[in-house]
Amino acid sequence: MNFDVIIIGxxxxxxxxxxxxSRYNLSVCLLEKENDVATGASxxxxxxxxxxxxxxxxxxxxxxxxxxxxxxxxxxxxxxVPCLHNGSMVCAFGEKEDPAVQELYERGQINNIPGLKxxxxxxxxxxEPNLSTAITSALHVTNAGIICPYDLTIAAVGNAMDNGVxxxxxxxxxxxxxxENGYAVTAASGETVTGKYILNxxxxxxxxxxxxxxxxxxxxxxxxxxxxxxxxxxxxxxxHTIFQVPSEEGKGILVSPTVDGNLLTGPTALKVETPExxxxxxxxxxxxxxxxxxxxxxxNFRQVITSFSGVRSSEKxxxxxxxxxxxxxxxxxVAAIDSPGxxxxxxxxxxxxxLLSKAGLVLTEKADWNGNRENMHAFREMTDEEKNAYIQENxxxxxxxxxxxxxxxxxxxxxxxxxxxxxxxxxxxxxxxGGMGRCQGGFCGPYVMALIAEELGxxxxxxxxxxxxxxxxxxxxxx
Length: 479
Prior knowledge:
This protein is α+β, with helices and mostly antiparallel strands. 30% of the residues lie in helices and 22% in strands. The protein contains 13 helices and 22 strands. The strands form five sheets. Strands 1, 2, 9, 10, 11, 12, 19 and 20 form an eight-stranded mixed beta sheet that branches. Strands 13, 15, 16, 17 and 18 form a five-stranded antiparallel beta sheet that branches. It has a four-stranded mixed beta sheet with strand order 6-7-5-14. The longest helix has 20 residues, at 60-79. It is globular.
């Protein structure tokens, strides 16, 4: 089959682009090099809906952030993705940093961001009592929020698939060649997919994909951010997302609640060799603790559940790269999508589709397109009475597998069956939170493995943590 559009990369931007293209009478194929969607930058980031005060006026970041906030909130509602409109504060520590807050406020005014206000330190502490007494001023950003980035990606891809988009996993693009029908995209495995138009949403590898069609004018700079996630006992330490005034390296260490009730601190910002450089370091985690405590001294780091690192993609210009190829007709690059890329993902997708249209792609809307997705978290949101009634019809939902997060067997089976179905331990974790509690899967892991094996019809020793060679078992006893 020769697809109308091929999308390379199933992160949040590629997923949203697939969803946007699914509105139209088009054949679309989404390619992902890993065993699941949302395994790159969309797997591990701050999950912040940025208000739009920070991007340099006149940039693509500023333009798309301004319009993207409300687009994201709307998409989250349609996709039933947990999202909290909690607001943020950008804090200054002393007279030397106070002008930075004023500068951000003025930049926000130029970017037409509503609801900005400069607070004194005392005013900020009246809203957030646990803030440091050293904070002298803060920019209050009322339109900011928090969202789960991988939940959003999974929902976007699932909705796209429900509307006819094809997903190919474990498709690591190794070559792209022009042909009479458009392009032939070949994987390292030898499999080939052909299509008339291509969206390059390959994240940390978008420059490598661009080079395959002769576009070598930009280079992705991978930057790692280390995080520390704390237990839900710390989740109410602050209600807003708390930033420090930004530096050249990024927006600084934040302290933020998550949509699931935990507390998140981080990230660092360190240039690394490759997008796969996701190691945490003692120095990085110490920096996260020290600077998080600078903002909120009472954070109890004895309640740490886990630490992790995510790698975001930037480019020397400091702006997004969303443009038609200079050498390949019908080929559009969507690259260098670092912060505020998550916030802008819906706006980026629509902008990219506009570029495809300008390149000749015909967009005819489907009469039966459905942008709403079934609530995958509906069971946990039911009352006890509603759960009891549901369990009578669906007994698997009455069997709790993950005690830390109260995740049932029915939810795990549903996560494996519904687009895009989980195929490994981490895939189940991202969809259900099974294994995300204090024990980090220590108790529920073997049962989850058994369910994956049963649902996929594979032996347990073939179950992986995250695809590839990440097998959970080495073999059977006695063999």
